[in-house]
Amino acid sequence: MGFRCISALWICLLAASVAAGEPYPEPALESYWSGIASFRSLTTAERVRDEIQHHFATALVIRRVSTANGEFFRLLSGPYGEKAAAHSAVDKARGAGYESAWLVVEPRLARGAEVPAPAADAAPGVVVSDKPADGSPLQPAAVDAEVHKDVHTSETMAPDQPLYVDVQQGASIKLTRIDTAATPIKIDGFVDEPVWQQVPVIDDFVTLEPDTLVPGKYPTHMRVAYSERGMYVSAVMQQPVESLIRRLSGRDVRDNRDSFSVTIDTSGEGRYGFWFGINLGDALMDGTVLPERVFTNDWDGPWYGRSQKTDNGWSMEMFIPWGIVSMPASSATRNVGLYVSRKVAFIDERWGWPALPPTQPKFMSALQKLEMQDVQPGQQYNIYPFASTAFDFVDHEPDYRVGADLFWRPSTNFQMNATINPDFGNVESDEVVINLTATETFFPEKRLFFLEGQEIFVASPRADTRGRGVGMRGAPYTMVNTRRIGGQPREPDVPDTIDIPQRELLQPTELLGAVKTTGQIGRVRYGLMGAFEDEVKFDVENFAVSPQGAPENLHQDGNDYGIARVLYEDNQGGAYRALGFLSTAVLNPQRDAMVNGLDFHYLTPRGNFKVDGQLMNSDIDGEETGFGGFVDFEMNYGQGRVHRVGLEYFDEHIDINDLGFLQRNDEYRIRSSFQWTKSDLSWARENQFDVRGFVQRNVTENLFTGASISFSNRTNLNDLSQLIARLSYAPSYFDDLNSFGNGTYRIEDQITSELSWQTDTAKPWSFKFGVGYDEENLSDGSYNASVGVFWRPTDQFAVEFETKYISSDGWLLHQEDDLFATFETQQWQPKLSVEYFISARQQLRLSMQWVGIRAEESEFFLVPASPGELIPIDKPVGPGFDDNYDFSVSQYSMQLRYRWEIAPLSDIFVVYTRLANLREALQDRSFNRVFNSAWRDPLADFLVFKIRYRFGS
After folding, report:
1. Which end of the chain is more exposed for a tag (fewer CB within 10 A), N or C?
2. How do residues 194-221 score in pLDDT, each as one tens digit?
């Protein structure tokens, strides 16, 4: 219990005594003191005394105090003959950062002499409490609000004990500044440097997941300090050694294992920040965070972290250089926000400080405030040269490339990145997705250049599709989808006599270079980016020249891209307000595409109401100007209860997909969701229920083009297994997209259901099972079943295998013009991953994913001339029609990768990749033959060697 609480208790007791007619006896002679703080260590008390002596007119003294919880060294100012003078000293102590300073009144007794001390190096302004190492509070008798009887003794001093930070709500902590030149810290995971003993401990970790807010089961001693170079964080975490879960992995891989993470609001005002995580075993994670809890792991920074097992748990150390993060210009005193959390995997709990569970609305604006002095990072620069060699086994051609990524930060609030002749080589592969619909699949960015500083271009929470909720989220709405840059080329407009092979249309476009600047001026943040593609060469066959197809080359100019962003933010009075403008341009000789957007954001001081919206227009050569936008409202009704409502409108002309991502235009929609998370139930650790729905019509015909209501529930059971159930219903509506411009037709109402169960993932063996049923567009249905096996016998080796089987009786697919057909299909979707870590920095990984489909024709339909039911017909025959519409699809991605991280963001890669996407006639082939056919005819088959090394300040 802190001094203020104890003081309040004694004041109440005194008042009760007076009310009972027993006034407290006043001593004949009194002296008055200002109690400043108490310490376990005499050395620390001496250092703090010398550090703050200049605040006081009288000399500070140190007393030894015996309490029920041990001995402390108490720092006092005095004596004063008048109570008012002592009160003034209390105010001075609080002004120096010691908010728990209190008034001491005692009889005049002989006092021990002041103990001299050397120059101090303790933390100025840190509020230090008397909390002993075991965390138990002091007994009320130890401190008296108005009377403190202190007995000095000359016994041997107690051994050093850590200081503990006692944070008053809303108060800032003045961080310890350390001189790493005089007292260096080796980032090795062992918290054994003497300098750490000068840094107060933060140990008030409470359980956030599940949201019980009870203290963590095992002690966590976290320390944070800083120097002119960066921030240092250490943590000593106790728990039974046999319960530790140490799993090695690549960067940013989420897994159920022991970990520690730090979130820093570098803006100091809840505008933007960065998070850093280290797992037991040294696998690193990092990313960015935007208001209020929009986390991404896209950003990677060159920081340092190590972990170690100890005799009673584990420990870790981090060093985060100031030069790698965005920070505004600041006066001598710089403010940042801090949040830290610890994952205890074997009980699947997350403990954190301060107490900010995911069920409460505020996060960024509620981080613990920290104060630092004279943090003005100097000019930073980094150069990342690379060299790569690739051999294409399909074209039997080698490819050699050298280039560089450049990073320059001349001040804390300006940064420039550039890339010259970049190699966005295939060291990461995308998920295999079979998409035979008219809507596009979104793939996230993985290239380092585009990830660095990209948070300024995020204009809405809708730009991010990730979240911890159980409800299904749709594709993003974003004006900036950097996967377009250097992506697949535009398909050339050629006569029918020229055939372009599929692999030519899927080849990535080479970039000549790109440049990006980001910065901040006061309350305004900005970002600029430009990128320039090289000319594209297509190897085609010209059947007008030869019946066998004469080989030719077609050349097409690449695109030039430009992005400009400005954002004004203000959070005075505790409310967050922001207004932004975003403009994009894609230029090529065929057409220029310009898109402009205005976004706005508001969050109330309590965080219980939030508004986000964006208005945009597109201006494309040869097309009409398009308009659209959306606005989202979010209401928090209490802990774990969140309601969202969204309104959106996009006319038939708006098109942002030259650089952005929007699945469809020509629609207006209302959507709503409600999420309720409840923790610490008698039958489960946590339960999350989600209900959401939408209603949609198109603009051009005012037709009802979609609606659904869905229920999702995720239960984390007491045995640490997880059960997920989903049920949704969509009424009959008109489909105006999947005829690919050949008309509008009605589809039947649909019910979708799913049930899955996963065992405790902290175990060496874990399993996942699922079943589901989906009604098809014309009332037939499909069934699916899935199973997953996860084996982690050691820290260094892991095998994951999942497979899904789908059987459908009426899969409706567009064939050509106004012709549709249904198919009886079977699908297999196996996925395998095998990882072996030679060390924490060397990884060998095999990943393989395949989707195989066998589809047999069933019924045929025509799209009606006006919107209505599909018209059943007999199978069409004759010229222009296929004899048989049965087909197979075989799409796979296989990658064997060796990665050696020789330094932060410096790597050696050896990667073999093989890809295929083959659709052809079925011809009664088995799944084995379907796979073998694609294996013999890959789209890509290449070996890459790449080295990248970071040089810089």
Report:
1. C
2. 889 888 899 889 999 998 888 899 999 9
Phi and psi of 160, rounded to 5°? -60, 140
Would you say 382 and 407 are in contact if contact means Cβ atoms under 8 Å apart?
yes
Q: Tell me, what amino acid is at 70?
A: G
Q: Which two tokens stand for residue 343?
A: 């994952």
d(CA 609, CA 629): 20
Interatomic CA distance for residues 592 and 291, integer angstroms: 34
- Determine phi and psi for 377, rounding to 5 degrees: -55, 140
Query: CA 873, CA 308: separation in Å to the nearest integer?
Result: 70
State how beta strands 176-177 and 220-226 pair. Answer: parallel
Residue-wise pLDDT for 81-136, tens only, equals 777 788 788 878 877 767 667 777 665 433 333 333 333 333 332 223 333 333 33
Nearest CA to 478 among 246, 298, 609, 658?
Answer: 658
* Strands 536-542 and 550-556, sheet pairing: antiparallel
The DSSP letter of residue 345 is G
Look up residue 816 and give its DSSP letter: E
Assess contact for 754 and 725: CB atoms under 8 A. Answer: yes
Nearest Cα to Cα of residue 580 among 544, 633, 619, 526: 526
Q: What are the structure tokens assigned to 665, written together?
A: 């235009």
Cβ neighbours of residue 98 closer than 8 Å, sequence gap 6 or more: 36, 37, 52, 125, 127, 128
pLDDT at 487: 83
3-state helix, strand, coil in the chain (%, to 5): 10, 50, 40
| Backbone conformation region of residue 620, classed left if phi is above 0, alpha if psi is from -120 to 50, else beta | beta
In degrees, to the nearest 5, what angle opens at C-alpha 479 toward C-alphas 473 and 482? 90
Structure tokens at 27: 């001593």
Secondary structure of 68-128 in HEC code, one letter for each residue: CCEEEEEEEEEEECCHHHHHHHHHHHHHCCCCCCEEEEEECCCCCCCCCCCCCCCCCCCCE
Number of H helices, E strands in the chain: 6, 51
Average pLDDT over residues 36-55: 78
Residues belonging to the chain: 953
**Side-chain half-sphere exposure of 706, counting CA atoms within 13 A:** 15
Strands (E), 863-886: 868-869, 871-873
d(CA 41, CA 74): 10
Averaging pLDDT over each range in 30-44, 234-248, 409-423, which range is the top one?
Answer: 234-248
Which residue shows structure tokens 């008048």? 82
Are 835 and 845 in contact by the 8 Å Cβ rule? The answer is yes
pLDDT single digits (tens) 165-174 = 666 566 788 8
The predicted-structure confidence for 888-901, as pLDDT tens digits, reads as follows: 999 999 999 999 98
DSSP state, residue 347: G
Per-residue tokens: 349: 């709990």
Q: SS3 for 517-557, per residue?
A: EEEEECCEEEEEEEEEECCEEEEEEECCCCCCCEEEEEEEC
- 425: which residues sit within 8 A by CB, 6+ positions away? 388, 390, 401, 909, 911, 944, 946
Q: Are strands 524-533 and 498-499 parallel, antiparallel or unpaired?
A: unpaired
> Most confidently modeled of 14-23, 410-419, 611-620, 778-787?
611-620
Give the angle 675-677-678 at the CA atoms, nearest 5°.
150
The encoded tokens of residue 495 equal: 């006569």
Q: Which residue has the tokens 């056919």?
A: 933
The whole-angstrom separation of Cα 318 and Cα 321 is 10
d(CA 850, CA 933) in angstroms, rounded, equals: 13
- Cβ-based neighbour number of residue 8 at 10 Å: 13
Total Cβ atoms within 10 A of residue 659: 24
Radius of gyration of the chain (CA): 33
Give the C-alpha separation, 273 to 368, whole Å: 13
- pTM of the predicted protein model: 0.78
- Single out the residue of 565, 362, 412 nearest to residue 482, CA to CA: 565
